[in-house]
Amino acid sequence: MYYTNFDDNITAKWRIVLEGWPLKRFCSPADLSTQNEVQLLMHAWENGAAKFRVLNDEEWEAWEAA
């Protein structure tokens, strides 16, 4: 999984975005420093608040333009 340059390595190549990341910084779960951060992230994935999503054509064009 690419955490550094996610936009270049994942979104630009596969049109996949990450929505609902609950933490201040996007990083590997292995880089989290507190149990609270781990629990918050796990809860976000379990309840569907955090998720990967494929951009549709209109969203993709807007993303590319930005």
Arrangement of strands in the largest sheet? 1-2
Oligomer: single chain
Q: What is the first-to-last residue Cα distance? A: 24 Å
- Based on helices, strands and strand pairing, what is the structural class? alpha+beta
Output the helix-strand order.
HEHEH
Number of strands: 2
Shape: elongated
Q: Could you report the average pLDDT, rounded to the nearest whole number?
A: 96
Q: Tell me the major beta sheet.
A: 2 strands, antiparallel
Strand portion: 5-15%
Q: Give the uncertain stretches in residue-range form.
A: none
Detailed description of the structure:
With 66 residues, the protein is an alpha+beta fold. It has a two-stranded antiparallel ribbon with strand order 1-2. The longest helix is centred in the middle third of the chain and has 12 residues. The protein is elongated and about 40 Å long. The mean pLDDT is 96.
Question: Any key phrases for this structure?
Answer:
66 residues; alpha+beta; two-stranded antiparallel sheet; 2 strands; elongated
Lay out the secondary structure:
Layout lengths: L5 H9 L1 E4 L15 H12 L4 E4 L2 H9 L1
Give a summary of the structure in a few sentences.
By secondary structure, the chain is an alpha+beta fold. The chain contains 3 helices and 2 strands. It has a two-stranded antiparallel ribbon.
